[in-house]
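= Paired protein data =
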Amino acid sequence: MSRETATAVPPAMQHRPPRLNTSIDQLAKFAGVGSAAMLLYLAFYAELGMWIPAVMANVIGWTVSTLVANELQRRWAFSVNDRNTRRADQTIALTASLIGLALSTAVLAGVPDGFSSLAGIAVILLINLVIGTGRFVLMRWWLITRHA
């Protein structure tokens, strides 16, 4: 028996197992990037907060982490590498992020103890889950329809 014959895979076994549904795969990548961006934000906030006012540290950390996350989600989660549409794609993602920031700020303003209470932490987690899901749906719709 030749080496070729011994290592050949029968046609019936050449198919690959089905991949995860694309939207589930995209959602997992989107969430992973979002989680990493949150850590980047916290690192910026913690470091800058020692040198500049907390509000400025918050804005800078949020801006940097959001821009990085939006680009990584565009490229990795949604597999869009078109340089010609990068600015428009970033504008949509940044707008969605700003809406999310405004909503979360408005809701947190109504939480009596803010972050210090268990209710405040629960509200933050729920808001981020809802906003993240909304951003995913919006970005997926925008990127898929625009780049289809």
The CA atoms of residues 105 and 124 lie 10 Å apart. The mean pLDDT is 75.
